[in-house]
UniProtKB/TrEMBL annotation:
Keywords: S-adenosyl-L-methionine
Listed PANTHER family: CHLORINASE MJ1651 (PTHR35092)
Protein name: SAM-dependent chlorinase/fluorinase
SUPFAM superfamilies recorded: Bacterial fluorinating enzyme, C-terminal domain, Bacterial fluorinating enzyme, N-terminal domain
S-adenosyl-l-methionine hydroxide adenosyltransferase C-terminal domain segment(s): 180-268
Gene3D superfamilies, sorted: Bacterial fluorinating enzyme like, S-adenosyl-l-methionine hydroxide adenosyltransferase, N-terminal
Signal peptide range in chain numbering: none
Matching Pfam families: SAM_HAT_C (PF20257), SAM_HAT_N (PF01887)
Protein family per UniProt: Belongs to the SAM hydrolase / SAM-dependent halogenase family.
Organism, scientific name: Herbidospora solisilvae
Organism classification: Bacteria, Bacillati, Actinomycetota, Actinomycetes, Streptosporangiales
InterPro entries: SAM_HAT_C, SAM_HAT_N, SAM_OH_AdoTrfase, SAM_OH_AdoTrfase_C_sf, SAM_OH_AdoTrfase_N_sf
Keyword Ribonucleoprotein: no
Domain S-adenosyl-l-methionine hydroxide adenosyltransferase N-terminal: 9-154
S-adenosyl-L-methionine is among the record's keywords: yes
């Protein structure tokens, strides 16, 4: 196990909570490393939404112990087009499919120092299902690492530069405005943008101001406040969320539905003209 890695395994998936998939993963880990503490980051990532999984893990990783972090959002599970990998980064170990779901979190802790394709079948659960690598490959591998297995013994070393990396969310300052995209939409319909509070601060925007929000050809005037509860129920509001990013919400409502803003949609913010 990497120096400094604690006996903690975190688990992020799109498995949902209605079936036994998450319980099976917990059971496999407990059978190999009963001393490991498991932290469920979440299991309600929209099915196959790799970017959403990557964003959740990257925004959560600063608050997690230096353990082994599993992320399984894996629409290409069982195919020959994607690898199963373990990545060492920032004193942590990341385990999952090489489809980019780990990439933003790896970058957030300083970048990969080593990477391995998971080819050592001795640490897999047998038989291996073609569609449940979380149970049969990723969780056993993570448990063996916590139990003392060296990461280098998990498989074949690969150059970190060959890992699949998701494109960074777009955000830029241009012509007195911030341009970005919808990074994610949470279960409340709050719309998280790739634009930071620092970006707005550069434009001179402060709490209490009003933003011009451009959605294609539509323009809205939205108050910028410290929380969504600062406006009456049913009203739109922009605020800085817990990740330091600008979010648009409806107090007691669903901003994504009202505005028709899916992940990836382009948004432009500027100080409203008085």
């Amino acid at each position: 196990m990497s120096p400094g890695v604690t006996p903690v395994i975190t688990l992020l998936t799109d498995y949902g909570l209605e079936d036994g998939f998450v319980a099976a993963c917990h059971g496999v880990i407990a059978g190999i490393a009963p001393e490991a503490r498991i932290i469920d980051v979440g299991h309600l990532v929209p099915a196959g939404d790799v970017r959403r999984g990557a964003a959740i893990l990257a925004q959560t990783i600063p608050y997690l112990p230096r353990g082994v972090h599993i992320a399984v959002v894996d629409p290409s599970v069982g195919s020959s087009t994607r690898r199963a990998v373990a990545i060492e980064a920032g004193g942590r170990v990341f385990v999952g499919p090489d489809n980019g779901v780990l990439s933003w979190a790896v970058h957030a802790v300083g970048g990969a120092t080593a990477a391995y394709e998971l080819t050592n079948e001795d640490v897999w659960l047998k038989p291996v299902s073609r569609t449940f690598h979380g149970r049969d490959i990723f969780c056993p591998v993570a448990a063996h690492v916590v139990a003392g297995r060296e990461v280098a013994g998990l498989g074949t070393a690969i150059p970190p530069r060959e890992l699949v990396t998701l494109p960074e969310p777009t955000s830029r300052l241009r012509d007195g405005a911030c341009e970005g995209e919808v990074l994610s939409v949470d279960r409340h319909g709050n719309v998280q943008l790739s634009i930071t509070a620092a970006d707005l601060g550069f434009l001179g925007v402060r709490d209490g101001d009003t933003l011009a929000v451009w959605l294609g050809r539509r323009q809205l005037a939205v108050p910028y406040r410290d929380t969504f509860a600062a406006v009456p129920p049913g009203d739109l509001v922009a605020f800085t969320d817990s990740a330091g990013l600008v979010a648009v919400a409806v107090n007691a409502g669903d901003a994504a539905q009202r505005l028709g803003l899916p992940p990836g949609a382009h948004v432009r913010l500027s100080p409203a003209r008085t």
